[in-house]
Write a structure and sequence with these properties.
This protein has about 230 residues and is an alpha+beta fold. It has helices at about 5-20, 20-25, 35-45, 70-75, 85-95, 100-120, 125-130, 135-150, and strands at about 150-170, 175-190, 195-200, 205-215, 225-230. Helix 1 (about 5-20) runs parallel beside helix 6 and helix 3 runs antiparallel to helix 8 (about 135-150).
């Protein structure tokens, strides 16, 4: 079991304890009723990020076994040799030798469900711990507007069909890795009277999201943070 797996499992237990009443139902989220593209643009290049699953700060981790492999083999399950994505992985790994796409992707999937669950439940505390200030501002505004209208979101997270690493780069001191998620949710929003104003409680909806996670590789903080979101095609 590598260090990524240990830390992701530890964080999952922590979040589960805080959200046990939510996670027991595997709820998800409605689509955020705000201009998420604007939030993405504001957050695209930003070092002010908040905690997501990462490595322990207690001791410097050993580089994963993949680091000893030739470049052409190290990323073969995630990127074609010589591709922009493979070059991005190399740039990130040069500054963060412990970077492992497989472990990262597993943690990102867990974080995705935690965040959509927290948004659906209006759990600001969890969102604030997981989102960059700009992304949090957009999500919090959507929750506040929903509450002011007296609406309630009923969302069931069915599952993630696919999670794919689609981008990686090093911008100055900040490593950024982008993941495309294809998931399924059942979502409905009701007004004060219980009437449906959006969604369908009996319909599973396919959702595509593209999320970018970042980490300051010069910082002692080893955690990756969610800094940008957008709807995928």
């Amino acid at each position: 079991m590598d260090i990524y797996t240990i830390i992701f499992l530890a964080l999952a237990v922590f979040i589960l304890l805080r959200l046990r009443s939510v996670l027991g139902q595997r709820t998800g989220r409605e689509r955020p009723p705000y201009d998420i593209s604007a939030a993405r643009d504001a957050a695209r290049v930003n070092d002010n990020v908040v905690t997501l699953p990462g490595r322990s700060t207690e001791a410097a981790p050993a580089a994963p076994a993949e680091a000893a492999l030739p470049t052409s083999d190290r990323w073969k399950d995630f990127a074609e040799a010589g591709s922009a994505l493979a070059r991005g992985f190399e740039a990130v790994a040069e500054k963060d030798p412990s970077f492992d796409p497989r472990g990262f992707l597993g943690g990102a999937k867990g974080a995705y469900e935690m965040i959509v669950t927290a948004f659906a439940q209006g759990d600001r505390r969890t969102l604030k711990d997981l989102l960059s200030p700009e992304v949090y501002e957009g999500f919090e505004a959507a929750i506040r507007e929903r509450e002011q209208r007296g609406e309630v979101a009923e969302t069931r997270f069915v599952g993630i069909d696919k999670a794919e690493l689609v981008g990686a780069e090093l911008r100055n001191r900040t490593a950024q890795v982008t993941v495309k998620f294809s998931s399924q949710i059942v979502s409905v929003t009701r007004d004060k009277s219980g009437a449906v104003v959006d969604g369908n409680a009996d319909k599973v909806t396919d959702v595509n999201d593209v999320w970018t996670f970042a980490r300051d590789v010069s910082s002692r903080d080893p955690n990756w943070k969610l800094v940008a979101t957008e709807s995928g095609q």
